[in-house]
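Progress note, sequence design subtask.
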């Protein structure tokens, strides 16, 4: 601060009628960033602005939120770039194996392994692309604009049916049983976009599938609580440590080693929370390590 004022006070004001910048005037465009005194965790951006004569004004802007958003943007781009490598590696490996089969370097029976690699990589890549698109819509304000223009009253059971239609193949593949209870909600409606609301429920149920043991059971409970529709998904899988419960809401963050080994970029639950808040609701989670999770 003293350095900025001292340097600025050596500047001379331009003479009347002289529109050429004073010597060193370019220094006024330079920004000085420093921690805000007396406000821990806040960041200020300072700039000296010349006024008439020898007078100068020091402008201070609180850029804490700008810095935080910029850091999130950098982390997001870095994490997406990292997540792209795994499915692309699957796809590349699968094609290399197919090339060896064509060249008769390996047995033709190994073709199924390469096809599975390509399929797995492609599905993961498509899922990541879909999540990035939705996340961008939510953070850019586009989803809010769509809700304002195209939102409609939707039967809550219609949202549930849309979501479950997409997860039934995964339930069968993992030999899981889904038990539903939606008593007395036949006439309950919510205002929103079915694409986003069904997508949020899909993410929750898909997480429950991914972290459940084969042959287990997942519960889906739909009820009305005062003026809100409440949907609860319960699994009995690996669970989450108490110290990691808040981490799951951070974009592209995953909680523990066991969950990290599951396919996913850590975008599902943060997207769910943003969708719920966009529609005037909330998402919460309770979990015990080794006992399961309730969302």
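Output:
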């Amino acid at each position: 601060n003293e350095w900025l004022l001292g340097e600025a006070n050596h500047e001379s004001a331009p003479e009347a009628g002289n529109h050429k910048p004073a010597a060193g005037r370019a220094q006024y465009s330079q920004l000085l960033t420093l921690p805000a005194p007396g406000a821990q965790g806040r960041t200020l951006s300072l700039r000296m602005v010349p006024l008439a004569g020898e007078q100068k004004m020091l402008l201070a802007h609180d850029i804490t939120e700008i810095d935080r958003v910029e850091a999130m943007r950098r982390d997001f781009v870095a994490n997406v770039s990292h997540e792209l490598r795994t499915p692309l590696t699957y796809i590349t490996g699968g094609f290399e194996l197919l090339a060896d089969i064509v060249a008769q370097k390996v047995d033709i029976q190994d073709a199924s392994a390469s096809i599975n690699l390509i399929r797995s990589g492609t599905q993961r890549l498509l899922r990541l692309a879909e999540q990035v698109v939705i996340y961008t819509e939510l953070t850019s304000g586009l989803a809010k604009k769509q809700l304002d223009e195209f939102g409609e009253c939707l039967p809550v059971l219609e949202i549930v049916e849309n979501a479950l239609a997409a997860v039934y193949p995964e339930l069968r593949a993992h030999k899981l049983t889904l038990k539903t209870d939606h008593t007395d909600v036949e006439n309950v409606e919510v205002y929103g976009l079915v694409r986003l609301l069904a997508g949020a429920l899909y993410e929750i149920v898909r997480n429950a599938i991914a972290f459940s043991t084969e042959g287990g059971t997942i519960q889906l409970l739909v009820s009305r609580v005062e003026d809100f529709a409440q949907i609860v998904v319960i699994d009995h899988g690996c669970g989450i440590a108490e110290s990691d419960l808040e981490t799951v809401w951070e974009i592209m963050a995953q909680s523990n080693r066991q969950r990290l080994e599951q396919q996913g970029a850590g975008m599902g639950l943060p997207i769910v929370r943003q969708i719920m808040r966009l529609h005037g609701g909330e998402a919460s989670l309770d979990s015990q390590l080794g006992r399961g999770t309730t969302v």
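Residues 1-26, 255-263 have pLDDT under 50 and may be disordered. Work on this subtask will continue into the next period as scheduled.
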